[in-house]
Amino acid sequence: MAIGVRRIGGEKSWFCHLHHFLSTSTENAASSISDIEGEFKSLCSTGRIKEAFNAYNAEIWTDQHLFSYLIQSLIPKKSLFIAKQLHSLVITSGYYFKDKFVRNHLLNMYIKMGEIHEAIAFFNAMPMRNIMSHNILINGHVQHGDLESAINVFDEMPERNVATWNAMISGLVHFEFNENGLFLFREMHGLGFLPDEFTLGSVLRGCAGLRASYAGKQVHAYVLKYGYEFNLVVGSSLAHMYMKSSSLGEGERVIKVMPMRNVVAWNTLIAGNAQNGHSEGVLDLYNMMKMSGLRPDKITLVSVISSCAELATLFQGQQIHAEAIKAGANSAVAVLSSLISMYSKCGCLEDSMKALSDCEHLDAVLWSSMIAAYGFHGRGEEAVHLFEQMEQEEAMIRSMPLEADVVIWKTLLSACKIHRNADMATRTAEEILRLNPQDSATYVLLSNIHASAKRWKDVSKVRTTMRDRNVKKEPGLSWLEVKNRIFQFSMVGPHGAKNALGKCCKKMFNMNHKDVIDYILVSQIKSPSNCITFNLIDEEVEGLMDTAPAGCRARNRGYSGVGA
DNA sequence: GTAGGGTTAG
């Protein structure tokens, strides 16, 4: 590694002044060592490095702690040039050979600055390494996305501590090698290492990734045994594990017994409800969170916007959009892509397009959201055009997650339906079902395509496969939004009209439109927060939509999934 | 007392 104390290039170096003080400063400060350290630390941590350096240029040479603070303060500056100058000063001071803290701080500095090659060279040249040095390097490799190198360091270590195991487990789980992470946890525990809050957080994330509630329950036992149930991070990851494994109630219980909640705990609760089909409760939770004095972050907003999309509550979606603008979170890609989906599902494709145009940096999920929005509105050609545009970006295709592939295939299936191409539809549907065998919308769409081509044998084959695989079709739903309330209608088919509810609605349908609305307002059949559900047959929904008064928004979402 | 790790989302 090339290290020089002299000035390099045209950049001005304030370290150069050091040599002057090295030979001239003999003054002894009146304040105690701990006072100096405190002041120096505070200057460094607030980024006032020059000030710290100028005020304590003499003390730096007699107190190795000050070098450590100085090294840490350089991390956010992200300047390899200045980092190397400080590195050379550390060598000049003699602390590089004398002090293991200073050495590890330097290693950590290169890693945190993203300079993995400098870090590796530094590690290889280190005169002495301890467990900490190895742990820092493992984390560096993981941060750089190089799990193999991380594993090599881990395997070759002469001695390990809990943090070593934590670094390796969290690295594996981070890259979704969840099973390997859990195996490592078992090995670690077998060797007598006790899990700490860091271990438990990673292991629970691994269980969540595997939807492994049985393993998760065992980890829950460890959480209770070692007394981490009220730890905010452990509690949130434990609740998340349950909620990902479809045990919403168990997850809620974990959060509810916690004496304190932070934004992450609230987000876990809100996202858990949103993802388990409890969108109605999400807005209530969101309001409770704000009432407790916490500000929503982009993760909160994403979950709440998705719930508005699920319920097609346009007005509330717009309110949250306004809050996102106020919070300055409206340029975050995650928030924008959920806004695109929300506006699309609420029937406002133009607003989806507007949200897309607000975005400065496009990523794969964002493109997919807009492609799906076009597909959702039956605008297959625009969807394909956007897909072609996206194809231009090489990097974009490579970074595409699995979900995006499904979206693209489903968009193509939608186009097959419009163009009545049954053969291509069959091949496309096979591709989708290979990726997601439980996708009910694809079965329904494929069955309809076969039906319109009068291929009855194929229709029956699709239906049989659906039954065999126990695929549940989501009901088609329509909405009527009146004064910030949502009236939701599910189509139950000709037989459903015979039930009492159907009769009741039929009666309602024969009223004039003012009476219809009044009737709806007083007859809450199902009343989660602001949503009322009626079961109607298709014609009645159409008829009811026609009676909607001016200024009231009526939308028909059609069958859930692709197409319209 | 000067060094390293964990959780939530589109």
UniProtKB/TrEMBL annotation:
The keyword Repeat applies. It comes from the Eukaryota. Gene3D superfamilies: Tetratricopeptide repeat domain. PPR repeats lie at residues 130-164, 262-296, 363-397. InterPro entries: E_motif, PPR_At4g14850-like_plant, PPR_rpt, TPR-like_helical_dom_sf. Pfam families: E_motif, PPR, PPR_2. This is Pentatricopeptide repeat-containing protein.
